[in-house]
Give the backbone structure.
Amino acid sequence: MDRITPVVLCGGSGTRLWPRSRPSAPKPFLRLLGEQSLFEQTLARFGDTAIFAPVLLVTGKDQLALVEGQLGESAISGIIVEPEPKSTAAAIALAALRLPGDAVMLVCPSDHHIADNALFCAAARQSAALARAGWLVAFGIEPTRAETGYGYIKRGEPIEGGFRVERFVEKPDQARAEAFLSEGGYCWNGGLFAFSAGIFLEELARHRPALSQAVRAAVAGGKEEDNRFHPGAAAFARIEAESVDYAVMEQTSHAAMVEANMGWSDIGNWQALRDAREADAEGNVVRGTADLLDCRNVMVDSDAPRVSVVGLEDVIVVVDGDEVLVTSAEGAAKVGKLKGPQGK
Amino acid sequence: MDRITPVVLCGGSGTRLWPRSRPSAPKPFLRLLGEQSLFEQTLARFGDTAIFAPVLLVTGKDQLALVEGQLGESAISGIIVEPEPKSTAAAIALAALRLPGDAVMLVCPSDHHIADNALFCAAARQSAALARAGWLVAFGIEPTRAETGYGYIKRGEPIEGGFRVERFVEKPDQARAEAFLSEGGYCWNGGLFAFSAGIFLEELARHRPALSQAVRAAVAGGKEEDNRFHPGAAAFARIEAESVDYAVMEQTSHAAMVEANMGWSDIGNWQALRDAREADAEGNVVRGTADLLDCRNVMVDSDAPRVSVVGLEDVIVVVDGDEVLVTSAEGAAKVGKLKGPQGK
């Protein structure tokens, strides 16, 4: 059986891990957990060459140098360089058009954390089997809290190796998120997908014909240099930016899901990062130099100055160059609303 | 009637306003409130030459340059330079020995804040009248909370222009502090005193003969240069370090007090400083550049980096060079226990 082709999407900088993540230091390339960046961890996840073919990367021209700087020894088949960000439907369509029609694509963001690689590989094989059977497969993550920052998937009837998707649900408010949890049968949408390249393109053409044609035109007008593929910029500019969830997964009648409880986190804000890092007996997490007195569940992340904290609980302190961030764990989701991450 | 001679004690650096206060930048000389340092504010308090004679300063050799740098145009009669710190009984005795026996001394720390100068002057005159009548006078501050960081004075029977002191009470625990407040008749000991120089020396000789003799020997062996008096170092080294409260005020049968509700604060920690600064409608206080989102009663004090704070209440953030302090308002009293202020 053919190996799975990982398609790694590497765009966007994100504002919610500001001040560590900045336009010059986007989230995927930061060493937030352990010694590797999230991007490096993502590439390392496909090390088993019995399962995975070389990785196809899709990134933006602003991120290309960062991507190349962290490729290391990873086996990649090429890099598609988008002239501008156009969301995930276009990025995946580009990759699908550059692959054989019967290739099974495993689409992965480059800025998520997955703690258990064995479970990830098992879910990847399971999703690939469904993809070969014609399904468009989403990875569902069992929810552990009433999170309002994620989309949800309502599980449908069981099929061989997984479930049908009853429906996708956009980010809910607090009350709905709590109802999902108590009702059961809902998973977080982990942003990982598997499908056959040909079937994805068919479904895209069916539900988003204009988007499909615009991407084809950009590929037709593109050029390849040293394993880097550059879509035609003029055609690319006309592409409508839509997420793959909205453009394809919510439209198709062949949506399926696998359950993948593999210690997934999108590291979507500082609270999520704190939770993914190892804490001491008091729940405190320190990177850099810190002096904590009467503290619980405090995270300090400092690139240079010593940070001394007294008498606090569930507070996060980040020092990065000329910026200091102090936030409650709960407030971490609002960091993007500060002036700093908006470039003010 | 002779004018009052202010005796300003200017020693010690204090650790509870770390990292702003450091051995190289002691608390009295920091511009913590308004444009003047607490030391400059203290000197400015004696501007009315109808009431006050020129100030006599007592400081340590390590602080002399700082004192001289902030004297400005203030009228001073001299500076006594202690070879080493020996607490307040010795410092006041030095000043008393350098003044005429009938001089009325008004002893003031140089690192307290007094918001209402008119009330201060009124209390100074009142205390001086009592001092001329032979009393040793303490300034009592009406307590506004069950503070455990201050000594207390139990008010005794009324006398002309004030009250007898029933007794001095050392820093109480929380339960006793609360009992003082509900019982009434207790004041905070503000650390300001008035007495005749001669009577102070008599009482010191009576209750602490060894300390009295050691200070006299240090003065006898001292030398004056350019208005700076340097006590003899060898004799000075033999002085026992005792507070004036303990060595004299608690011992004498002539202790009196005036009530002085003049907006006094010893600015003893960051919470006290926050309370003394002007806050905005949400109770937030900012010095330097800050960006506050969903915050209440937060103080930011930064010498350079921008400090962004999200979703916190009653938290204080201080940035000073290579040190960042984040403390709960309640935890501010424990800042001195951190490694930084202990020079570690």
Remarks:
- Chain A touches chain B at residues 19, 291, 293-294, 302, 304-312, 315, 317, 319, 321-328, 330-332, 334-335, 337-340 (CB under 8 Å).
- The mean pLDDT of chain A is 95.
- Chain A has two domains: 4-265, 270-342.
